[in-house]
UniProtKB/TrEMBL annotation:
This is Response regulator transcription factor. It comes from Streptomyces telluris. Pfam families: GerE, Response_reg. Keywords: DNA-binding, Phosphoprotein, Transcription, Transcription regulation. GO terms for biological process: phosphorelay signal transduction system; regulation of DNA-templated transcription. The modification 4-aspartylphosphate is found at residue 53. PROSITE patterns: HTH_LUXR_2 (PS50043), RESPONSE_REGULATORY (PS50110). The keyword Phosphoprotein applies. InterPro entries: CheY-like_superfamily, NreC/VraR/RcsB-like_REC, Sig_transdc_resp-reg_C-effctor, Sig_transdc_resp-reg_receiver, Tscrpt_reg_LuxR_C, WalR-like. Residues 147-212 form the HTH luxR-type domain. GO terms for molecular function: DNA binding. Residues 2-120 form the Response regulatory domain.
Length: 220
């Protein structure tokens, strides 16, 4: 798994590099100190993952992420946003921009490694501190629910599964809720993503809120 590190703090990059390069299945392909450098490296190296700081000079992490996820040639590149604060005001906006997940910079090393591996395999990821309630809070500030393109093509079961994804359930939890196998739950999630043109599970969550399938406050 090839990773690009994008953070304006040299010590942060050095710490991440030391941890990632020590793993037999992960290698740091390059480092960038701002969003423009990150974008150039991603276009050159085509890594599997970019660990992208939100706040950087020249071009911030949000803008860089939008350019990466908006480029069809970079469709296989996943972005994990890095933030100093769990309650970052840009969390929801970054996921809408195409980020596959979030990590706070002081996350445990095991969590960082799990995140990189999970996102490479197509799962979305949020730090434990960036909870489902936080997603709901920022979803409440987004535009009024509107029918997402492709929503009408979903079967009733796919809508049901998308709703459960929206409230934060994993495939295993969805399987238990619906009394189906985890593989069947994963298949329904994948079909919903394809029909809605969602880049990954994180964007499916966003669409669940924006289309009104899930409303803030449903988490109890």
């Amino acid at each position: 798994m090839r990773v690009v590190l994008a953070d304006d703090q040299l010590l942060v990059r050095a710490g991440f590099r030391a941890l990632l390069d020590a793993q037999p299945d992960i290698a740091v392909a390059g480092e960038a100190a701002d969003g423009e450098q990150a974008l150039a490296l991603v276009r050159e190296l085509r890594p599997d993952i970019v660990l992208m700081d939100i706040r950087m000079p020249v071009l911030d992490g949000l803008a860089a992420t939008r350019r990466i996820t908006g480029d069809p040639a970079l469709a296989d590149v996943k972005v994990i946003m890095l933030t100093t604060f769990e309650l970052d005001e840009y969390v929801f906006e970054a996921i809408r921009s195409g980020a596959s997940g979030f990590l706070v910079k002081d996350t445990e090393p095991e969590e960082l490694l799990r995140a990189v591996r999970a996102v490479v395999h197509g799962d979305a990821l949020l730090s434990p501190g960036v909870t489902r309630r936080l997603i709901a809070e920022f979803a409440a500030r987004s535009k009024e629910p509107a029918e997402a393109a492709g929503l009408a093509e979903l079967t009733d079961r796919e809508r049901e599964v998308m709703t459960l994804v929206g409230i934060g359930l994993s495939n295993e939890e969805i399987a238990r809720r619906l009394v189906v196998s985890p593989l069947t739950a994963k298949t329904h999630v994948s079909r919903a993503m394809v029909k809605l043109g969602a880049r990954d599970r994180a964007q499916l969550v966003v669409l669940a809120y924006e289309s009104g399938l899930v409303r803030p406050g449903w988490l109890g």
